[in-house]
């Protein structure tokens, strides 16, 4: 694990933005206009999907994927200029938030500046045409990292350039790149900005096996923690989906979360994301508001750094199209912003980053606790509509700090309602 990783990252909240889809103007200025609202949610880090020009060759859709990058140093004119980007960074910093940007170094578009200047840097089919190693991403071609050292130097210079402006990197499919590249990159970037936050988009367990079976390297989360501060929770994501789809139990999903505690370094930090630009909206998966509120509260209570994908706070069910113009359908009537604001304030309690983390009851309910000395933070998320549960609490009334309502424990039993419960005992 990156030895300098701060435990305080577990108190932070991330807000993911697809600039093209976020506002009617589809640009950085549209984000600036929304920053006060974003800040009010308790957000600490604003994370932007790639904002570089998109390649035209074999482009998917009419606009293309932001992950098919033409030039790492340039900004897509749709979003604005470099000065517009600097203005966005300034406005984010003035609100005491940080900015994280997407780094896509596994591949470029097939007509990128680099494929034109250095075609020898890229993976090719036997017929000499550009290609990617796995999958059907027809709009991109992969770097051949192991054959050309010059790739490393070029891409590290890209990181050093953007590190002048931003506070963190989210690195796309980072486990498919050489781990030694990331180690060297972190050391050299720290000479420019020693306080960068490094987030790896780790990959699903099955995909790691698939890549390795094809003869390529794919690194596990445990290995990625040698360099990165935070990793995606794709190692448990499928178990959550299986629970929501009725294919597996809540207990199995919670067991996989518990397994993380024994698998990763002691100070590991997971990104707790229930939806993103690659995954369906949690509101779509869950289907009803009562359970959605329980799941949202659980997302924030899990140990780690929660990430909201813009629109999640309005219970949006449609994931924005990656290849077309598809604005987020903001709907204040469906807002759960007040809930997220309260959850963010609870997330910032010291006990959530410094306390020990316990799975108390995982039989048809999620009952988790943090302990710090004589202090306890108790979270009970009634995802299966139970009427009551047994708890190790003295009989009496307890304040739910999420709703400011009292709940009574009688004869060691807590009556449940259709709302998440968080008790803070000191």
UniProtKB/TrEMBL annotation:
Stored InterPro entries = Bac_A_amyl_C, GH, GH13_cat_dom, Glyco_hydro_b
Alphabetical list of SUPFAM superfamilies matching this protein:
(Trans)glycosidases
- Using the record's annotation, list all stretches that form the Glycosyl hydrolase family 13 catalytic domain: 16-347
Record-level GO BP terms:
carbohydrate metabolic process
Top-level lineage group = Bacteria
The name of this protein is Alpha-amylase
């Amino acid at each position: 694990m990156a030895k300098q990783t701060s435990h305080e990252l577990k108190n932070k909240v991330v807000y993911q933005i697809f600039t093209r889809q976020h506002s009617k103007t589809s640009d950085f200025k549209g984000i600036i206009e929304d920053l006060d609202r974003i800040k009010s949610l308790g957000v600490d880090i604003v994370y932007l999907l790639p904002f570089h020009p998109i390649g035209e060759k074999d482009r998917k859709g009419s606009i293309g994927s932001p992950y098919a990058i033409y030039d790492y140093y340039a900004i897509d004119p749709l979003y604005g200029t470099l000065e517009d980007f600097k203005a966005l960074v300034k406005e984010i910093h003035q609100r005491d938030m940080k900015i994280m940007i997407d780094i896509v170094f596994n591949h470029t578009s097939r007509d990128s500046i680099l494929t034109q200047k250095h075609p020898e840097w890229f993976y090719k089919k036997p017929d000499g045409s550009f290609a990617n190693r796995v999958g059907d991403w027809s709009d991109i071609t992969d770097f051949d990292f192991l054959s050309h050292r010059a790739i490393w130097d070029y891409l590290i210079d890209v990181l050093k350039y953007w590190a002048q402006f931003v506070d963190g990197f989210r690195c796309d499919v980072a486990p498919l790149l050489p781990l030694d590249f990331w180690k060297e990159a972190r050391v050299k970037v720290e000479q420019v900005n020693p306080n960068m936050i490094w987030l790896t988009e780790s990959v699903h367990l099955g995909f790691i096996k698939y890549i390795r079976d094809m003869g390529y390297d794919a690194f596990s989360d445990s290995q990625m923690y040698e360099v990165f501060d935070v990793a995606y929770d794709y190692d448990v994501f499928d178990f959550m989906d299986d629970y929501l789809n009725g294919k597996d139990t809540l207990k199995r999903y919670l067991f996989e979360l518990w397994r993380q505690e024994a698998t990763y370094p002691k100070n590991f930090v997971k990104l707790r994301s229930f939806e993103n630009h690659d995954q369906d909206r949690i509101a779509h998966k869950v289907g009803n508001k009562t359970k959605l509120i329980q799941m949202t509260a659980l997302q924030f209570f899990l140990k780690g750094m929660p990430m909201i994908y813009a629109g999640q706070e309005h219970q949006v069910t449609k994931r924005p199209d990656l290849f077309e113009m598809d604005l987020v359908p903001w709907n204040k009537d469906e807002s759960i912003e007040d809930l997220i604001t309260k959850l963010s304030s609870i997330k910032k309690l010291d006990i959530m980053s410094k306390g020990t983390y316990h799975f108390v009851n995982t039989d048809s309910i999620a009952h988790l606790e943090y302990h710090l000395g004589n202090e306890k933070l108790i979270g009970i998320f009634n995802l299966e509509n139970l009427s009551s549960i047994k708890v190790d609490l003295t009989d009496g009334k307890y304040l739910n700090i999420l709703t400011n309502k009292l709940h009574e424990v009688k004869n060691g039993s807590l009556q449940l309602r259709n709302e998440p419960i968080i008790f803070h005992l000191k």
